[in-house]
UniProtKB/TrEMBL annotation:
<dbReference type="InterPro" id="IPR055357">
    <property type="entry name" value="LRR_At1g61320_AtMIF1"/>
</dbReference>
<feature type="domain" description="At1g61320/AtMIF1 LRR">
    <location>
        <begin position="9"/>
        <end position="355"/>
    </location>
</feature>
<dbReference type="InterPro" id="IPR053772">
    <property type="entry name" value="At1g61320/At1g61330-like"/>
</dbReference>
<protein>
    <recommendedName>
        <fullName>At1g61320/AtMIF1 LRR domain-containing protein</fullName>
    </recommendedName>
</protein>
<dbReference type="Pfam" id="PF23622">
    <property type="entry name" value="LRR_At1g61320_AtMIF1"/>
</dbReference>
<dbReference type="InterPro" id="IPR032675">
    <property type="entry name" value="LRR_dom_sf"/>
</dbReference>
Length: 398
């Protein structure tokens, strides 16, 4: 306890010594929530010059009586303890704020962004465990990033929204049904859905300016109909780049569905390619219906660090589960069988396989598995055929 008090006292002395000398950037990174950032040290005009504030691992209790960050343009709070009301009292006096980043701030339940933040363009809220509501009144936000649990999102005026990143369960369906239709000027959408149970619905709205779409549906490969994404793609007439990350045709390879044509898409990249029939259908749809397609990249499951990254200095693949490696092989077979024959001459197909080390590992595991099965059969046959139970590893009877 004494060591903690001594450290807090030293931090206070450092802040007090440097306050009032025109500080423009203030970064304080600690790992003790017991430390309460001394807001009073930066009152009376001492903090008016601060343009960037980064606090990590402490408590932060601003009040409405401390309007001391009038020049603040960027603020980042990581693992900081504060309530939604305390943060709102600070934001109401930070008229110059342009970027706000909040990560792992678990005490906050409701985040309210006041309408007077006319310059706020970038809002990022990641992994705030107890957060339940984001209520934004700032009218000019162009980039919004959120990751965590599904919560109540009220983003206000989104006419200037150009980039959105969402990461939570059911994010893709939620974005299509409730959010994207209010963002007519959206240019880039990055959707990461941990559990996507519902297929993509038929959309009536058009996203006329969307040029890049990244979708990461973290779901089981047989539970989601990837071909339902065609309705979303049909609502994006200006789409140029599609990246589908981690998505078995061999049960029913016939009667692959077809969709409408696209005339702007140039690049398609699918990571974690599997043999899911709906995914093969979607890929064939790109080849048959996207008349402007130039590049198609299909990448099987990769270890971490990625097998395909040549610049990796590790030179070591962390082992993938054998069922994942086997599915990667099935995915490659699906590419060779159903996709490669349909690739037009003007489309450059790039297939990224697991590296040689991963393939050797799969072969070794399979060989070990078959050897173990064979040895078990021999062991059982020895026990059964013996006139008395005798240990096969020695001559001692049992």
């Amino acid at each position: 306890m004494m060591k903690l008090l001594d450290l807090c006292s030293k931090v206070d002395q450092i802040l007090k010594k440097h306050s009032g000398i025109g500080i423009e950037e203030l970064t304080l990174q600690l790992s003790m929530e017991e430390y309460n950032f001394p807001c009073s040290l930066l009152s009376n005009g001492s903090g008016e010059s601060i343009r960037y504030l980064h606090l990590c691992g402490c408590s932060f209790r601003p009040t409405a009586e401390l309007p001391w960050l009038k020049s603040l343009t960027k603020m980042r709070l990581h693992a900081v303890c504060f309530t939604g009301d305390e943060l709102e009292s600070l934001l109401c006096n930070s008229f110059a704020l342009e970027r706000l980043v909040l990560t792992h701030c678990d005490e906050m339940v409701c985040l309210k962004i006041p309408c007077m933040l006319q310059r706020l363009r970038y809002l990022k809220v990641f992994c705030c465990e107890n957060l339940r509501v984001i209520d934004n009144k700032a009218p000019n936000i162009s980039s919004f990033l959120y990751a965590g649990e599904r919560i109540q999102l009220s983003l206000g005026n989104t006419l200037k929204m150009e980039y959105i990143h969402l990461a939570f369960g059911g994010a893709l369906h939620y974005a299509c049904v409730e959010l994207l239709s209010s963002m007519p000027n959206l240019k880039i959408a990055n959707i990461n859905s941990r559990t996507e149970m519902a297929n993509t619905p038929v959309l009536r709205s058009k996203f006329l300016h969307l040029k890049k779409l990244i979708i990461r549906p973290r779901t089981t490969i047989f539970s989601y109909d990837y071909f339902s994404l065609v309705s979303l793609l049909g609502a994006c007439p200006s789409l140029e780049t599609l990246i589908l990350d981690h998505v078995s045709i061999f049960t029913d390879p016939s009667d692959l569905r077809k969709g409408q044509q696209h005339h702007k898409m140039k690049r398609v990249k699918i990571l974690g390619f599997t043999s899911a029939k709906s995914l093969v259908e979607l890929t064939c749809h790109f080849l048959e219906s996207v008349t402007s397609l130039e590049y198609l990249t299909l990448e099987s499951y990769q270890s971490c660090p990625r097998c395909s990254v040549r610049a990796s200095k590790c030179r070591k693949c962390y082992p993938l589960p054998i069922d994942v490696l086997r599915e990667a092989q099935r995915g490659l077979l699906a590419i060779r069988t159903y996709i490669e024959p349909k690739v037009p001459s003007m489309v450059k197909l790039r297939v990224v396989e697991p590296c040689r080390r991963c393939q050797l590992l799969l072969n070794f595991r399979c060989a070990t598995h078959h050897y173990s099965m064979f040895y078990c059969l021999v062991f059982v046959s020895v026990i059964v055929s013996s006139s008395y139970q005798k240990c096969p590893f020695c001559s001692t009877g049992t």
